[in-house]
């Protein structure tokens, strides 16, 4: 796939959208080229792709949408697990502790996929691109 340079409109091709979102969301790779890694550690992202040099975090606070995705997914999963557990076993001692523990665990577990998916989404809408001066 060719490297996309600076652009200011969303990607329209559904095949490119799917490829970019799968690469970033599932494999933690650059949505633009698929070559560079998004994360340098568990919580820290690279500033730009090592292969095609697109910048992941262009503006401060740009990746806060990943927190919303993370929280939403953790809440939905926790709700369904809690619902079926309480329906099957009823209320029991420690159910509140178990639900809160599950919520905290899922928040950490879903951190990287949520952040990578968000980077893929902002790439689709044109906010992740290569700087012209490189």
Describe the 3D structure.
By secondary structure, the protein is mainly alpha-helical. The chain has 4 helices and no strands. It has helices at residues 14-27, 65-89, 95-109, 111-124. The model is unreliable at 1-5 (pLDDT under 50).
Give descriptors for this structure:
elongated, 134 residues, mainly alpha, 4 helices
Write the SSE topology.
Layout: H1 14-27, H2 65-89, H3 95-109, H4 111-124
Helix pairs in contact: 1-4, 2-3, 2-4
H/E element order:
HHHH
Mean pLDDT, to the nearest integer, reads 83
Helix content: 40-55%
User: Could you give the distance between the termini?
Assistant: 19 Å
Query: How many helices in DSSP terms?
Result: 4
Strand content: under 5%
Broad structural category: mainly alpha
Sequence stretches where pLDDT stays below 50 over 5 or more residues = 1-5
The overall strand count is 0
From the spread of the alpha carbons, the general shape counts as: elongated
Radius of gyration: 18 Å
- Most strands sheet: none
Short description:
With 134 residues, this protein is an all-alpha fold. It has helices spanning 14-27, 65-89, 95-109, 111-124. Mean pLDDT is 83; it is low at 1-5.
């Amino acid at each position: 796939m060719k490297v996309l340079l600076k652009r200011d409109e969303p990607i329209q091709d559904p095949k490119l959208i799917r490829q970019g979102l799968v690469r970033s969301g599932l494999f933690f790779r650059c949505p633009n080229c698929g070559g560079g890694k998004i994360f340098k550690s568990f919580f820290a992202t690279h500033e730009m792709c090592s292969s095609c040099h697109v910048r992941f975090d262009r503006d401060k606070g740009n990746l806060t949408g990943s927190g919303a995705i993370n929280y939403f997914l953790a809440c939905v999963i926790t709700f369904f697990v809690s619902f079926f557990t309480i329906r099957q076993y009823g209320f029991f001692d420690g159910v509140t502790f178990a639900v809160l523990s599950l919520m905290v665990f899922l928040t950490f577990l879903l951190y990287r996929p949520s952040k990578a998916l968000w980077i893929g989404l902002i790439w689709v809408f044109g906010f992740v691109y290569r700087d012209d001066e490189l």
